[in-house]
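Predict the 3D structure for this chain.
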Amino acid sequence: MTSEKFRWRRPLAIGLALIAAASVPVRPVAADGLPDLGDTAQADFSPQLERKVGEQLYLETRRRDPSYIDDPELADYLDRLGQRLSEHLPGERMDVRMFLLADPTLNAFAWPGGFVGVHTGLWLAANSESELAGVLAHELAHLSQRHIARLVQRQGQMSIANLLSMAVAVLASRASSQVSQAALIAGQAVTVQAQLNYTREFEREADRVGIQTLQDSGFDARGMGSFFGRLLRESRLYENNAPAYLRTHPLTTERIADVDNRLQNVPYRQVPDSTEFRLYQEKLRARLGTPADAVKDFQRRLQQAGTAAQGALRFGLSYALLRANDLRAAADELGRLRAAGLPVAPVEHLAGQIARARGDAFAAVRTYAAARVRAPGDRVLLYGHIEAELAAGQAESARRLAESALAERPRDERLSGYLAQAHGLLGQRAAQHAAQAESYAVQGMLSEAIEQLELAQRAGDGDFYRLSAIDARLRELRARRAEEKRDEGRRSRGG
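Done. Predicted structure below.
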């Protein structure tokens, strides 16, 4: 697919490859000989600044990129996979945020501060969970080794202001790809040659760290080698239109040989895919093409598939039928999924969605409530339960659920958003705006959060204690915003 809405990520391969790395400093030399980056790599591009840059890019992507997939179930799986890998990276723990983009190209990329984007095409192309994990481990290795900070330190002349201006240019490309390309040209002239000088070194380092991370995380470390090897072989068919991943992560026969040599010393480990990996891969596939075509494709594949693949295929077929609004057939497939003994959370979340599509929000509430007894810690079931309560007009129950969950996860912007909706249905305007402010604040949208708190002050229905809390929070966020503006001014003058 080469439509305009995807074109903005092509300059990213040129410009954001320069800011595609690193979030936390690593410890001094580890047992495997990883380098001690020390304080020099952090002098110009601190972990705090990296996080701010990454958060801004992620926020703009969520708000403006139509290919961003806002599916908590898929995001939760990727986040859990990312956290599993990040626990075994060298250095301090990293706050990883994975996100998914509806893009058929084979690509994944890392942004400063722990943000990793995954194209649906990459997930669908993975032959195993270890292959997908291998690509993510490679991206996380770029982050843990703070490649962008090291690049800034080596180049010397390239300032943080240059990096930030290129980031802004890439984001502006959503409105006009020509504007983006023109804005990037000056930065490219200074930086691209230096980037090329270090790309192979950084790729080898990311391969080395990624392989070790895969092995320590319990995956088959050969997943990275098998995926890269297959990608290199298939790339010969593309001629000058190579897959996006190869444009940002150059593969050479020497690099593949280096990976293969490292893998020779890794003990063989047969690692079965998780059921969730296969289920969600088929859920993604159900999004392809028209609903009718998706249904036909799953029906054809079911006729050809063995017994082991039936569950995941029927799960995907159920979502395709849901897209096609064939709710009776979707419910029939749901019955087969329940009988097959698949994991509770994905199957019952599907059941709740079918009930909502039928217009029976109360049935959805009962479905989610029963499922959460069987899988009490599942975040997606919690979200579905609150959404169903809101759809059923049970605002007080939704409010209690959201407030209780927020006590454990106060930085969950989705929960704060649900709480705002519940307060709104209850007519509690000050509380509604205050909850919405927290959702914005967690996402880094300080101006929007401040505006919501100002609305809360003027709502006229807050008691003394709530208004005192709103006033205190407003002072805190205004101080944070003022400090950010001072930082931006200092960076601009220093650039």
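Residues 348 and 371 are 6 Å apart (CA to CA).
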